[in-house]
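Reminder to self: tokens first, then the designed residues, so the page reads top to bottom the way the pipeline ran.
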């Protein structure tokens, strides 16, 4: 896209803005690709991509730096700034499914059982937040049991950027059913219409100020008239796969004598809908950019003429160490996705999408050379510079 913009004499961001998908647009590629079969018709219902680009460009000083020869420098080490626009999917439409089960305990706390697996992404916390928000209790009142296939509900898996959207959708459905049962029981206790009651702060309150605690409700349901366990189980599967959007920016320094590319700064502005937990969402973006940085700059599986892997250890494979990392910055830009729990959509995989093309864009800004083969190793960059000639 940038090469086309360059040929047209247009600013890269202006050209991309003219062509990226917008709210209301269909996504025929998503439908055609599906998952091992043709998928389902998709439409963009939420996007804050324009704001992602605007905020990211402002934070990076894009318009002041891009193409600025004074900022780039004229010595052997030249600086460049690049950008890439990214979109991903949220779960696999018509395939991914998650289940959740919730019950109230005697003390007014809740057990939440989910098949979703927390791989370090914070999904146990996020799913508990969704339950707590729906049930009007603090997070500590939700006791999570996850991913034990002996007794938790089924979940397709922690993959495909699906857990918050799919498993969270199941949690919200189950919590809404439990909420309705609590209001029904409280209405019996308060002799009021359930539609007039409010559930918040661990209690149910009538319009006249009378209230019963969730502990009162639980004990009444278990030990008095019309005894029953307040609990519910729900499943969630979606035929929609709402795309998160992002603007990925990169600043690099390129040593034109050696081909060494040093990435100095990565910033990603991401629209993941409503971030249920901004800290864990930002952490996933930072982790994704870290993985994508290695993919772009140093990580390569090299084979000899006989097809044998020659760098089978992490030493020569070259993963970034902590003290080699560039500055990482994340901007979460909110939109509201109507099909997601409390407006959420995916954030897990989109951080991997934009780093390599943004670095390619930055290398071009620094040197005038386009390199379309990964990773951007010193030898590969040096050879491209030699082929381009001394004018670069």
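Designed residues (392 positions):
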């Amino acid at each position: 896209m940038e090469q086309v913009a360059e040929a047209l004499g247009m600013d890269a961001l202006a050209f991309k803005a003219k062509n990226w998908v917008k709210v209301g647009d269909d996504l025929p590629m998503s439908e055609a690709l599906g998952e091992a079969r043709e998928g389902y018709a998709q439409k963009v219902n939420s996007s804050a991509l324009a704001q992602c680009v605007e905020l990211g460009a402002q934070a990076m000083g894009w318009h002041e730096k891009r193409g600025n020869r004074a900022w780039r420098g004229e010595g052997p080490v030249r600086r460049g700034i690049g950008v890439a626009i990214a979109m991903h999917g949220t779960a696999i439409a018509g395939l991914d499914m998650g289940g959740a089960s919730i019950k109230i305990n005697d003390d007014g706390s809740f057990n939440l059982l989910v098949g979703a697996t927390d791989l370090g992404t914070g999904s146990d916390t996020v799913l508990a937040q969704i339950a707590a928000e729906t049930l009007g209790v603090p997070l500590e009142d939700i006791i999570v049991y996850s991913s034990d296939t002996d007794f938790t509900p089924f979940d397709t898996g922690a993959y495909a950027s699906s857990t918050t959207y799919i498993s969270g959708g199941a949690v919200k459905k189950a919590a809404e059913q439990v909420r309705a049962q609590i209001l029904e029981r409280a209405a019996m206790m308060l002799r009021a219409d359930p539609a007039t009651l409010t559930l918040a702060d661990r209690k149910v309150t009538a319009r006249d100020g009378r209230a019963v605690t969730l502990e009162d409700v639980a004990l009444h349901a278990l030990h008095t008239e019309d005894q029953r366990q307040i609990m519910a189980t729900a499943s969630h599967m979606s035929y929609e796969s709402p795309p998160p959007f992002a603007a990925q920016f990169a600043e690099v320094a390129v040593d034109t004598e050696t081909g060494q590319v040093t990435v100095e700064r990565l910033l990603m502005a991401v629209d993941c809908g409503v971030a249920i937990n901004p800290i864990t969402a930002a952490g996933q973006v930072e982790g994704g950019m870290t993985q994508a940085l290695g993919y772009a700059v140093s990580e390569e599986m090299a084979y000899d003429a006989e097809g044998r892997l020659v760098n089978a250890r992490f030493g020569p494979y070259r993963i970034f160490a902590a003290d080699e990392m560039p500055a990482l910055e994340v901007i979460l830009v909110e939109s509201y996705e109507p099909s997601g729990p409390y407006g959420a959509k995916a954030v897990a995989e989109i951080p991997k999408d934009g780093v390599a093309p943004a670095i390619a864009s930055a290398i071009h800004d620094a040197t005038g050379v386009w390199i379309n083969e990964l990773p951007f190793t010193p030898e590969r960059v040096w050879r491209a510079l030699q082929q381009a000639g001394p004018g670069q």
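The first strand starts at residue 77 and ends at 87.
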